[in-house]
Hints:
globular, single chain, mainly alpha
Amino acid sequence: MLVVMADVLKHTVQSLIIEFLKEKETPFLYLDTHAGAGRYQLTARHAGKTEEYLEGIARLWQRDDLPTELAAYLTVMIKLNAKG
């Protein structure tokens, strides 16, 4: 579970960095050399093989006591996986 929660932390930090960079007037390039698919349903067959999301991000979906920075990331994830 620690690795899965570390993934949530990594993605939260990445999204915060990108939001910060978007506020600047100069262009930037973000390149993730270890990225997988850009977007996929967590309940799709591909993600369902291990269902590791159940021990990570899914455990946070129902929480209402999350830091603002984490809550913003989770809001996006919930919207992307609403029909999953």
